[in-house]
């Protein structure tokens, strides 16, 4: 058959020279994407430092960034210990939310009746503010860490559950027909069709749940705060507030934000790594 | 290529008897459809939008059940054929998996059948070069043009070496040039592989160019109103498009099709 006549040149043969303006523009954009945020933050910090110094704001109201940095160094040991605790809490609750959300989401996608009967519980869990349930959980569960874990898990769980369930149902109906035509087994259908179709939804949920897990961990610890023995970053913030150690409060706050940013960057990177080669949400458009 | 398939020269492949299809919402998509298709035929289903062409195709492939009547394919009830009763199905859209590259997409039917990649490689590469996409095995669907995607879809339908190829308006969204090229490719596949093809289309010209028989359907309820054999021989090519018999056939099919529109309320 003489069919190959209408093929254009394969992409690989297109020049990739150093002087290609498109490639140069792309490189510059890549650099800017790193440089600009860093520069903006540096300028904001400098401005903060300057304003505090210029207006002679007392450090128990607003500490200068330099003082916060100093506090970070002097209180490094206790702050780190707390940070490790919060990280552990966040990651464990996120992990459990993923396991629980994905398993239940699959169950929902498999059976409408199960979804219809269990979904209200999931919604109730989601809409009830965690601060309102946390005290109860702390009463019922004697181990504080486990209680905190449950609180953070409740917050992070819902987006994973609902997105997994929707994602598994979102497979293209013609592709479903194709799998039926070739008599795919239920397992093949799940593996080769439903899971890849659900992946973009799951990744979107993961980005949200990562942040929510941290919020859940911090909020729950605030509620538990007076119980004493827990040693997360939220406790450091509370404790500093009681003692009026504002720079230390800012230092702990800084670590919480840093943790949130790291989680965000990681989940974004993961999403790009997993979906980058095919899904609209992560493909960089040309032109 | 010694023996050209002509309609009616072989055993019956598909038999539809008094088939009705009523959807859950009460729509009668097909009413009393009876049709017999022999091995080696190239049959076009032609008719206005909504007359049940896709529905008929899905019932023949077993993707949809019939509400009344019976369909057999190669002697088995539709959808229940044994090994070797493969059906290739080309959907109106290319229907590729966006997360998989061209090779993986074409390999899918064999993968679902449990063939390892190494065992399947040769067959996949064969069908890919057949549709002229050997150089694009590693490309993703989004990197291909509409016509190339359609060809991937055709390659996937051919990879199981089916005896029956069902195509649902495969080229509706393509430009005239690409469409003409792909038409010739389909004819060539049909000829070299001894396929039977059912080809759904809106285009009178396409149906006359390709098929050995045109089944004209009417809507509300969907049914067969004309069954027109086209006796012009193969191979068909650009010269055939210029010939008086082509023009004559187009006229016949057109007027048959116009008849179906008389009793359709387009505002409905
Ligand atoms: N899943 C469905 N549920 C209810 N009605 C349906 C369904 N699928 C198709 N129909 C109806 O059945 C009729 C025939 O539909 P079908 O898709 O077979 O038409 P068609 O001839 O392929 O049209 P087109 O040329 O526009 O693709 C239409 O009236 C349509 O509304
Ligand atoms: Mg259709």
TrEMBL record, chain A:
Gene Ontology cellular component annotations, sorted alphabetically: plasma membrane
One of the GO biological process terms: transmembrane transport
UniProtKB keywords: Cell membrane, Membrane, Transmembrane, Transmembrane helix, Transport
Record-annotated ABC transmembrane type-1 domain positions: 83-267
Keyword Cytoplasm among UniProt keywords: no
Location within or outside the cell: Cell membrane
Name of this protein: NitT/TauT family transport system permease protein
TrEMBL record, chain B:
Alphabetical keyword list: ATP-binding, Nucleotide-binding, Transport
GO MF terms held by the record: ATP binding; ATP hydrolysis activity
Annotated signal peptide: none
Top-rank taxon, per record: Bacteria
SMART domains: AAA
Nucleotide-binding found in the keyword field: yes
SUPFAM superfamilies linked to this entry: P-loop containing nucleoside triphosphate hydrolases
Domain ABC transporter as annotated: residue spans: 14-244
One Pfam match: ABC_tran
Family: Belongs to the ABC transporter superfamily.
Name of this chain's protein: NitT/TauT family transport system ATP-binding protein
UniProt organism field: Primorskyibacter flagellatus
């Amino acid at each position: 058959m003489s069919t190959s006549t209408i093929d254009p040149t394969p992409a690989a043969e297109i020049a990739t020279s150093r002087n290609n303006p498109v490639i140069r523009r792309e490189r510059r954009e890549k650099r800017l994407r790193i440089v600009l945020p860093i520069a903006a933050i540096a300028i904001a910090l400098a401005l903060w430092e300057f304003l505090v110094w210029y207006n002679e704001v007392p450090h128990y109201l607003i500490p200068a960034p330099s003082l916060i940095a100093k506090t970070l160094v002097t209180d490094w040991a206790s702050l780190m210990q707390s940070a490790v605790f919060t990280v552990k809490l966040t990651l464990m609750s996120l992990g459990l939310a993923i396991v629980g959300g994905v398993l239940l989401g699959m169950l929902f996608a498999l059976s409408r009746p199960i979804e219809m009967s269990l979904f209200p519980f999931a919604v109730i869990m989601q809409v009830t503010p965690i601060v309102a349930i946390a005290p109860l959980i702390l009463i019922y569960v004697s181990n504080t860490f486990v209680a905190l874990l449950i609180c953070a898990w409740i917050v992070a769980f819902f987006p994973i559950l609902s997105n997994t369930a929707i994602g598994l149902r979102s497979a293209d109906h013609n592709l479903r027909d194709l799998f039926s035509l070739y008599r795919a087994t239920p397992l093949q259908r799940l593996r080769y069709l439903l899971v890849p179709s659900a992946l973009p939804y799951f990744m979107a949920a993961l980005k949200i749940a990562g942040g929510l897990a941290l919020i859940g961990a911090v909020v729950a610890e605030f509620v538990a705060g007076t119980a004493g023995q827990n040693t997360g970053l939220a406790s450091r913030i509370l404790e500093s507030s009681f003692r009026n150690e504002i720079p230390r409060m800012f230092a702990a706050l800084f670590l919480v934000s840093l943790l949130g940013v790291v989680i965000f960057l990681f989940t974004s990177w993961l999403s790009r790594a997993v979906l980058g080669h095919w899904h609209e949400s992560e493909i960089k458009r040309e032109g | 290529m010694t023996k050209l398939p002509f309609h009616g020269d072989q055993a019956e492949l598909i038999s539809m008897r008094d088939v009705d299809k009523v959807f859950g919402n009460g729509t009668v998509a097909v009413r009393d459809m009876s049709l017999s298709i022999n091995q080696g035929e190239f049959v076009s289903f032609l008719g206005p939008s909504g007359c049940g062409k896709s529905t008929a195709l899905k019932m023949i492939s077993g993707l949809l059940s019939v509400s009344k009547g019976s369909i057999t394919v190669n002697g088995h009830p539709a959808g229940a054929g044994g090994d070797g009763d493969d059906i290739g199905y080309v959907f109106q859209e290319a229907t590729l998996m966006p997360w998989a590259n061209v090779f993986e997409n074409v390999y899918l039917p064999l993968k679902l059948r449990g063939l390892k990649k190494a065992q399947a490689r040769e067959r996949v590469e064969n069908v890919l070069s057949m549709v002229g996409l050997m150089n694009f095995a590693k490309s993703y669907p989004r990197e291909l043009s509409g016509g190339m995607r359609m060809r991937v879809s055709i390659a996937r339908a051919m990879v199981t070496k089916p005896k029956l190829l069902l195509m649902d308006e495969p080229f509706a969204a393509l430009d005239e040039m690409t469409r003409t090229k792909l038409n010739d490719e389909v004819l060539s596949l049909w000829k070299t592989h001894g396929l039977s093809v059912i080809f759904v289309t809106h285009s009178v010209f396409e149906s006359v160019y390709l098929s050995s028989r045109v089944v004209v359907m009417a809507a509300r309820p969907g049914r067969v109103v004309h069954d027109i054999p086209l006796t012009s021989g193969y191979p068909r090519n650009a010269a055939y498009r210029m010939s008086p018999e082509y023009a004559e056939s187009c006229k016949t099919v057109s007027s048959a099709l116009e008849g179906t529109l008389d009793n359709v309320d387009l505002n409905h």
